[in-house]
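Quick question, first post here. What does this chain look like in 3D?
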Amino acid sequence: MSAAALDLAAPLLAGVLATAGAGKLVGHGTARTAHRTALARLLRGGRRAAPALRALGALELLLSAALLVLPPSVAAGGAAAVLGAGFLGYLGYARAAAPGASCGCTARDDGPVGARAFARAAMVVAGGVAVALARHPWWVTAPRHPAATGCCALAAAAGLLALRADRRWRMPWRRLRLRLTGHPLAGAPNGPRVPLAATVELLEHSLAWQSTAPLVRSALLDHWDEGGWRILRYAGLHAPGGTARPLVVLFALDAGASRDAVREPAVRVSVLDADTGEPVAAGDRAGDPLRR
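> Answer (accepted):
Ran it through. Tokens below.
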């Protein structure tokens, strides 16, 4: 089973690289989002970042094709492992130098570098090592071990789905679970009075969100309750004069408000520089300044 898994690593790794590479090379949003990535800061300009991302996408596609059509070898596996190690180094730089910027690793990455990005890069390193250790081509092993092939494919699909940058696919399931079982903290003395999804829905229909949305560049990253307010954190980006500036955007709403009870909530907004923590915009767009 373990030997078969090593032989089957090549097509699974090729699928990971091909998906990411195609998004960078032919994705319509590459040029538009390149200036939001940490690569733009590393290369000192979004105009340089877009061609670099497309070149990296082409390299990933070439490597994925080689993994699919060539027998496993130390050269192919080593190249993939080195590429994954390079990703890890770049992610470390991005986390330290531009914590509010995205990495641009996939076409759907629009939030700050997080654990999922590091896990995807580590997966590439592990896949490269597996290809280097494989003994037989995958097209020979797959027909001989159909059960192992199916298990590896399912495990890889589940892992990739869990590590997707865009996790909005989970929202319908979360809402269904809340409707069937109720909120896990319902009835607690200090627990939230409404589900988080209801607060996010209320925010996204508010005037404060509409006025601040051009700065927001991520889905919800974090939230907490404080003093009767529910505070929601997003990553943002401001580009005065063409220079990308990563931001942290905070919204605060009444923790007990929902669309059923309030049509236009009081929302407090604070926009901070992601690197220094200093306020970028004084006051807010729908209330008093948020002070945490």
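The chain is about 50% helix and 10% strand.
Residues 46-69 form the longest helix (24 residues).
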